[in-house]
Amino acid sequence: MKIIVLVKHVPDAQFDRHLNGERYTTDRDESILSELDEYALEAALQLAEARGGSKAGNQVIALSMGPAGAVNAVKKSLQMGATEGVHLTDDALAGSDAAATSLALAAAVQRLGQDGPVDLIITGMASTDGETSLVPAQLAERLGLPQVTFASSLDVDGGRLVARRDADTTSETVEATLPAVVSVTDQINEPRYPNFKGIIAAKRKSITTLSLADIGLDAAQVGHSGSWTTVASAEERPPRTAGTIITDEGDAGIKLVDFLAAQKLL
Amino acid sequence: MAKVLVFIDNPGTALKKSSLELLTLARSLGESVVALNGELHSSVSTTLAEYGVSTVLRPSSEDLDDYLVAPKAAYLAAAAQSTGATIVLLDNSPEGKEIAARLGIRLSAGVITDVVGVDADGTAHKSVLAGSYNTACKASTPVSVLTVKANNVVPEPAAAAGAAETVTVEVPAGSTAAAARITAREQKVASGRPDLTDARIVVAGGRGLDGDFGPVEELADALGAAVGASRAATDAGWISHDAQVGQTGKTVSPQLYISAGISGAIQQKAGMQTAQVIVAVNKDAESPVFEIADFGIVGDLFDVLPQATAEIKKRKG
C-alpha cells in the first residue's frame, strides 16, 4: 500500500499564539507537529505494519506543506516510522487559505502518484492552528475521491475501506473504494513515541523537497493571490480577566445562584 | 437584492433553533431561499413562510442521506447556481463545515467557518487561535460560503409572512459515484439534553468529579443545559467522548459555561474561551481556570453543585 499522511507544523498551543503582518498570517515560531496529525500517522503505520511493513513494499509518506521549519514535522514523522518524507515548500505558498492549500496538496499528491498509484491519504481531524477542518474535504473534492472524515476506526480490505464515525446522535459505518481521503479523530488509536531505534533510523531516511514548479503550479494560484478569502482585520482579544473569586463557607451554591440570577442567566 | 441560500438538512417536524438563527441572519442580508434536504412537513413549511423565505428548494433524489456529504454538496451547488445566490449559509456542525468545504470548491467560492456575525457587505466575523483574536474576513470570490455558529443571532420571524413556493433542483448525475456510502447507522441513546455545540448553557466536569458525573448532570438538568467534559474525564471513560470540550473535542460558545473540577489546562480553555460568562468550581485555588472565570468558587463541587441545584429548583418553584 502507498499511504500519504498530511502532517502540519503548527504553533504549540501551550504558548500564546500570534498573527503578524498586514495579512495577519500565523506566527510559526515555536511550532511542533500538530498533535492531531500523530493519530493520522499512527493509523497509517498500523495499516502498513499489518501488511508486512516496508519490507513488503508498503510506503507511508509524510507530506508537509510549509516554510523551512515545517521540515521538522516531516522529521518527527520519520522518527515515528514513516518510510519517506516530502516537504512542499515555496515562498509563494505563504498565506494560503484552505482552498489554495488544498489545491497545492492535491497537486503534490498527484505528483507523488506518478511513480505508483496512491491508495490512501490520511489526515488529522483538523489542524490545531487554523482549525477549519476544510482541507480534507476540499482535497477529496479536487482529486475527485471519496472522503471519509472523522473516522474513529479504519479497516482496509482489498480495495475497500470501512470506517466508523461518531456524530452527536448517531454513529455510522461507512464504506468507500480506494483511493480515498480519510481524516481520523483522536479516538482512533494511541500514537507511538519515537524510540531510539526510530530516531537513528530516521537519520538515514531521505526527505524530498518539492517546489511549486515541481508540482506544476505557479505563484498566482496559491498564497494570498490564490486564496478565496482574505482577512480584513484582526484584533487581539483582551485576555479574560478573573472576576470574583470566593471560598466556599457552606453557602457557595446559593451565591452561585445569586450570581446567575444577577446575570439574568436563570 | 442579494439572494441568500440557507441549507437545512432533515428538519423533521420542527426547525432547530440554529436553523431559525440562520433564517433570521439570511433575511438581514437579502432575499432568503432555503435548500432543504429530507421531508418537508407542513409545520416546517409554515415556519419557513413566517421567516420570510421566498423559495424552498428540494432535491430531485431522496438518497442523499445514504452517502457522506459529497452528494449534498453537489445538490447545494446546483441550488446556488439555479437561484444565483451570492451567499450560502450553513450550520457550523462538522457535517455543515464539510459540505461547505466541497461546495466551496464546486462554486470556486471562499469558505469561512466558525462565523459569529455577518455585515451587510458579507464581511464575516470570527475568532481564531482559540479565541485569542477577533477577525473580520471576506471571500474575494463572487459567492461566499459561511458556516455560522449557534447562539449568535436572536431568531425573529419576518414582519410579514410570505408564501414560499417549492421548486425541485436536479441533483447532478454522478454525484454519488465518488462518495463514501453509509452502510449502517446506529441511533445513540438520546439524553434529552440540548446538543453541546448549540447549547445556551453548558455544565462541564473534569478530573475533580472522580468518576461521578451525577452532580454535573443534575445541575445541567436544572438549568436546561448540555453536559460537557474535559479530556481527562472522557479518556477515563466516565462519560462519552462526544461530551469533550476543548481543542481536540468541541469548541463551544454558550452564554454560560460552568466548569466543575476542571483545572483549565490550555486545551480546555481553548474550547470555551468565547463563552460569554464563565463560572468555575474547583478545590484548588491555584487552578488556571480561575484566571478566566467571571465567578470562581474555591470549594468542593460535591457540596457546591447539589446546593446550587436545590436552590435553582426552589427558585423556579
Structure commentary:
The complex is a heterodimer of chains A (266) and B (317). Chain A is of the alpha/beta class and 266 residues long. Helix content of chain A is 27%, strand content 30%. In chain A, helix 2 packs across helix 5 (196-203) and helix 3 (98-112) packs across helix 4. Chain A is globular, with a radius of gyration of 21 Å. In chain B, the strands form three sheets. In chain B, strands 5-9-4-1-2-3-10 form a seven-stranded parallel β-sheet, sandwiched between helices. Chain B has a five-stranded parallel β-sheet with strand order 13-12-14-15-16. Chain B starts with a strand and ends with a helix. Classes of the chains: A alpha/beta (266), B alpha/beta (317). The interface between A and B is large, with 88 and 93 residues.
Summarize this structure as a short list of keywords or feature phrases.
heterodimer; A: 266 residues; alpha/beta; 9-stranded mixed sheet; two-stranded antiparallel sheet; 15 strands; globular; B: 317 residues; 5-stranded parallel sheet; 8 helices; 27% strand; elongated
CA radius of gyration of chain A is 21 Å
Unreliable parts of chain B? none
- Overall spatial form of chain A: globular
Main pleated-sheet profile of chain B: 7 strands, parallel
| Terminal Cα span of chain B | 49 Å
**Helicity range of the residues of chain B?**
25-40%
Most extensive interface: A-B, 88 and 93 residues
Helix content of chain A: 25-40%
**Number of distinct beta strands of chain A:** 15
> What class, by secondary structure content of chain A?
alpha/beta
Shape of chain B: elongated
Strand content of chain B: 25-35%
Tally of separate helices of chain B: 8
Distance between the termini of chain A: 57 Å
Helix and strand composition category of chain B: alpha/beta
Oligomeric nature of the chains = heterodimer
Helix/strand order of chain B: EHEHEHEHEEEEEEEEHEHEHEEH
